[in-house]
Amino acid sequence: xxxAAFDYLVPQTVAGAVDALAAGxxxxxxxxxxxxxxxxxxxxxxxxxxxxxxxxLDTLTVVDGTxxxxxxxxxxxxxxxxxxxxxxxDLFARAVGYIAHPPIRARGTMTGNLAWAHPASEWCALAVxxxxxxxLRSTRGTREIxxxxxxxxxxQTARDPDELLTAVRYPLLAPDTGVAFTEHRRTGFSFxxxxxxxxxxxxxxxxxxxxxxxxxxxxxxLRAHNAERTLIGSEPSQPVFTAAGEAAAExxxxxxxxxxxxxxxxxxxxxxxxxxxxxxxxxx
Amino acid sequence: xxxxxTVNDAAYPLEVEPRRVLADALRDDCGLTGTHLGCEQxxxxxxxxxxxxxxxxxxxxxxxxxxxxxxRTVEGLTGPDGQPHPxxxxxxxxxxxxxxxxxxxxxxxxAGALDHDLSENEVADLVRSNLCRCTGYEPIRRAITRAAHAxxxxxxxxxxxx
Lengths: 284, 162
Hints:
The complex is a heterodimer of chains A (284) and B (162). Chain A has 284 residues and is an alpha+beta fold. Chain A has 10 helices and 14 strands.
């Protein structure tokens, strides 16, 4: 099928883009999900605002330990672990390889993933695990929402239709943080059945910080708070990681059944993957 | 909308609807039917072309987005002397195609990556991007690796065999 007819605007500034949204426009950034939805006639916007020519949205900046990712930063940017300082760059580089494939990564954007809010999105799971903050701009002003409050369900967020997701901010990870990302899927082309990102801080032999993000383990991206609590104060070991995996599977995850993965199966995968990810992340 | 597509260094002034995807504009408006359309969902990769040097799905970009941006299609791989591109020679040498439907997409996918130093893993990751229902991928992987080695060793002159 082909996209239905629409009017097309190319704003040259953020203010212009925000005005277009106030007039009911749908934002086109990377377009790798939007155009697919339009092909399938599941999305038929009357007005599309292509923000690809707005200067300044394609930048990554680090100020006072906070990374800001602009709305036009492509997935591909994160393939190099040096694109973002410290372990955060390493974690992003490990995760990005699971996102679609190179031609999609050349166009799609991290911020677009957060706007689209697919429950299996790797970036969305990391955003909630890493205490990211989403910056939303409209003609009414600018507001910031913590990622954990931002995701409300499958493809549902706290963003109002007239708000432009201009940037996402992440606190950088401390240099002694260990990171890992693992994913389970049916084929190389499939979405994640379960994906897990983790950041662990071990000081003097004891886990002092833990962040675990889960993708496709509920109707929205999750931070595995219960699993994290079982880790703090423990010495990193296989039994500790296994217990954390079981906590994530039983108490954090709320899997939705899918044709190739029922709830029991997915809980089992969560337990295995969380333990495996933590083992990889544990700095030794 | 009036736009000008710059494809393989030639200008194509076009009048297109905003909803026209780049792949359709290339095939139907520019007459460049080397770019194939399979799934029209970004999955199969038969429509892969270079936009500003980057391999992208031309079914997931609008033609109007590409106004004034350099585009390269499979028709632009052959040199001005009519000699096949080293990638095309490598695909031939390694039997990297059978029916040929996916081949333009694979060639442009590889063309976009040839200037980087491609590791074995990167070639494997690259080959995973597109669908081929004939070869089983291994000959395609070998062909891209062969062309990449020749490229890195500076042996991909158009008149030398790869």
